[in-house]
Amino acid sequence: MRDSNHPNTRHLTAPGRLLVGANYHPHDSDPATWRRDAAMMQESGLRIVRLGHLAWDSFEPADGDFRFDWFDEAMDVMHEHGIGVILDIAVRPAPLWLHRKHPTIGVIDPDGSHHYPNHRYTEDAGDPHFREHALRFTDRLTRRYTDHPALAAFGIDNEPGDGPISYSPTVLTRFKTWLKAKYGDLGALNRAWASQRWSRRIGDFDEIGLPRPGVAGGAPERILDFRRFVSDEMNGYLAAVSDVVEANAPHALTTSNMWYYAPSKHFDWAAGAYGRRLTRPGNGFYPSGSLMDTDSVRDALFGIARIRYEQPDPFWCTEFTTMTAAPGSIRRSAYASLMLGNQLVCGWTWQTMHAGEEQFLQGMIDWDGEPTRKLDEYRQIATEFRTIETHGFPYNPKADIAIALDFASQIAWAALPESHDDQALTAFRTVLDRNLDVRIVDLERSELDYKILIVPGLLVLSERAADAIRAFVARGGTAIMTADSASLYTDGRAFRATRPGRLAEVFGIRVGACEEPRLLSELNGRKGTDDVQVLLGERRLTTESPRFDLIESRGAAILGTVADLDREYPAVTANRYGDGTAIYIGLPARTTLLGSVLDTETERLAVRPGPSAPEGVMARAITDRHHLYLNLDAEPKTIDLPRTGRGVLSEQHLGHRLVLAPWDAELVAFA
Prior knowledge:
Elements: E1 19-23, H1 34-44, E2 48-51, H2 56-59, H3 69-80, E3 84-89, H4 96-101, E4 107-108, E5 114-115, H5 128-145, E6 151-158, H6 169-183, H7 186-192, H8 220-248, E7 253-257, H9 270-274, E8 282-285, H10 295-308, E9 315-320, H11 329-338, E10 342-347, H12 373-388, E11 401-404, H13 407-412, H14 420-432, E12 438-441, E13 452-455, H15 463-474, E14 478-482, H16 504-507, E15 509-515, H17 517-520, E16 531-536, E17 539-544, E18 548-553, E19 557-563, E20 569-577, E21 580-585, H18 591-604, E22 617-623, E23 626-631, E24 637-647, E25 653-660, E26 665-670
Parallel strand pairs: 1-2, 1-10, 2-3, 3-6, 6-7, 8-9, 9-10, 11-12, 11-13, 13-14, 14-21
Antiparallel strand pairs: 4-5, 15-18, 16-17, 16-19, 19-20, 20-21, 22-23, 23-26, 24-25, 24-26
């Protein structure tokens, strides 16, 4: 029955709304409890549920046998209680009947062992049989529910970067086809793969094998191409699902738990983000449960930024921590996420599971339906979000600073001591801790409308990306590049020309090999360590790094040096190019050193400052009249306000000063 008092719930997702919800599993629970649960959700202020994920065979228990009647009731129950539904399109994991019908969809590991699908995500998303059935299921599901009044959005897959890569014969066949399309002939392939090395020249496409992962698994050029192939297949699969959704439900919102950067099958999501394949980009938000661990909150915020890229649409945290999270930590994370543009906090999960791998992963209610303290915390968040939602939320970051992220550089770093991702995370933390907005960008797609561009260990540099950096600096921007950047051509071979490759004249330097501080320090009679002293102007900065680049000035000014070794080594250089400045830091991204350089440039370029706040307090100007403050730390913080204000949450007059309790939040409305 569809309740006429709630004609539809899509108004819930409009601007000026902040949403709190839960992941709910009607296929894993007794229908007799659905109304009880929906009533509890409604009473707690939860306005969204996410349904359907990981449940393909509940809708299609046998090939072509679609059964939706049971789920119609679940949708209707949510509608009756005014709760919107994110309906996940549950095409991974695939049902066992599909594995039996088409064994080629299964996963084979690099050693040739077949993976029985005991665990989720053990299917080959590039397999044509898998895609055929997945798209048929997507078509039937979206046609049935596109006009249901409970529908808030469709979810496109779940954690698509998770699950093992398959090394099956059918994958090899498709990889060969991909290589033929990319290179055309064996001469081009052999040049790109440097196959003269170690006698690995390819005389026929049938001689191609699948490179194993890891430094010792195969030539890096081959690994990079194979991972690009896997990435293209994942994006092709997701695009095909999205195309069906857009055809059947052109006005429906789309979201996901888009964990594309999972270690097992990290793929390139940039094209999807810039193409707005998700109208509400989404992901799970899982910092540690500890209130003392603020780094994990920053790491989770980086997940939002790297999925959203420059997309202007609100973000949805389609999963959010419950478990044994310390009291208050979920609320703290919820407010932190608002400062990155989040609109939805959707707890994983409503009820502790009755069976399966997550039966002891604690939810908002226990196995017997009794509420836990996590439900109380989500209720508090929902109440507070309703109080503040009309004051400029969801927030849209207004960034003057960008950080370049590159898929190929993350894949190609394996022989280096530090990954591109880790350097990008350090850069993100450095900007975040200054209460400055920042965007993650793809250099080949972004217009780079910023004042500062950080290029952290971007190992692989294409001509198009190099041209983008060159043009950005020439028109007045500051590019800050860190060690290991611009080292490889796009095929994975090292630049033969002067490094930083394609940009040596922009940065005014030559980058040679590297040195290791722990070895050089032995020349001074010290036990080798990674400790590094950097003289930057009149400041002495202490940091650590396993290595640093050898830099020769070719016109650039030397701003800083590595000291206290056998001699001083240039560490930070700046070069005027056109109307802008190109800065090179010869160490991997480190908060101390990068932060010092960043502070100088933000002041010089008049970067829009965030609200003034003491260390450990996140702050954003949500509107000209509303500032959001969050204390990440375990001690009270006193904040000097720019003018008299009123606490929207506390309903207190604040004057010119706000005292935030440990881990507390406040939205200040100024007169």
